[in-house]
Amino acid sequence: MIGDKSRATAKFIRVPPRKARLVMDAIRGRRADEAMAILKFVPNFAAAAINKVLKSAISNADNNHGMNTDNLKLVEARVDEGPRIKRVRARAQGRAYRILKRTCHLSVVVEEVAPKIKPIRKKAAANAPAAAPKAKATAKPTVAKPVQKKRAAAKPAPEIVADAPTAQAEVKEETKATAQPETGVESAAAEPEKTE
């Protein structure tokens, strides 16, 4: 019956309450199966003790109250401080330091809640033909962007000549024809005239 509660406690657990509360805070308010999965992978001694108490609370809910174990949720998860075991460590010059071994009491309360509703998923094969035309209808037509042509290089690519020695000779002749012979007259013309 929804709203019924079941509890379990473990007393005098040899774990400091501060360390146990770190684990208990991680599972408080979650569903029982989800909390069990989390505790399974927590590498802490307190997690093992809390897991034991949670299993006990689930068993109490099933056997004593007739609840459905699939619909249980952690309503209350509490860690209380237990008695401290006092020990002594000998120190220098006859002193003694006190060692406190802390213990805790674990309390877990589970409650039956409404079952978790799973979303109904349609088969992918049935939706595939219907989805394809919609995608085509809603898709925007793509416009091709004009491709910009790169500017041609200033010098055209050299032509491949089969006979390399003759091509080199032709190039030498062209350079000789275009170049002017150096004479003393030209060099004199290049110098500015001095006037007195």
Structure description:
- The protein is built from six helices and five strands, in the order βαααββββααα.
- The mean pLDDT is 80.
- β3 (85-90) and β4 form a beta hairpin.
- It is elongated, with a radius of gyration of 46 Å.
- The chain has a domain at 5-112: Ribosomal protein L22/L17 (Ribosomal Protein L22, Chain A), CATH 3.90.470.10.
- It has a three-stranded antiparallel β-sheet.
- It is 39% helix and 20% strand.
- The chain is of the alpha+beta class and 196 residues long.
- The protein has helices at 17-27, 32-40, 45-63, 124-138, 164-178, 184-190; strands at 5-13, 72-81, 85-90, 96-101, 104-112.
Q: Gist?
A:
The chain contains six helices and five strands.
What is the helix fraction of residues, given as a range? 25-40%
Average pLDDT, rounded to a whole number, is 80
The third-level CATH topology of the domain at 5-112 is Ribosomal Protein L22, Chain A
Uncertain regions spanning at least 5 consecutive residues: none
Q: Helix count, per DSSP?
A: 6
How would you describe the shape? elongated
First and last CA, distance = 129 Å
Question: Whole-number radius of gyration?
Answer: 46 Å
Total strands: 5
How much strand?
Answer: 15-25%
| Element order: H for helix, E for strand | EHHHEEEEHHH
Largest sheet: 3 strands, antiparallel
The CATH homologous superfamily of the domain at 5-112 corresponds to Ribosomal protein L22/L17
Strand order of the largest sheet: 1-5-2
The helix-and-strand class reads alpha+beta
Shape-level CATH architecture of the domain at 5-112: Alpha-Beta Complex
- The top-level CATH class of the domain at 5-112 is Alpha Beta
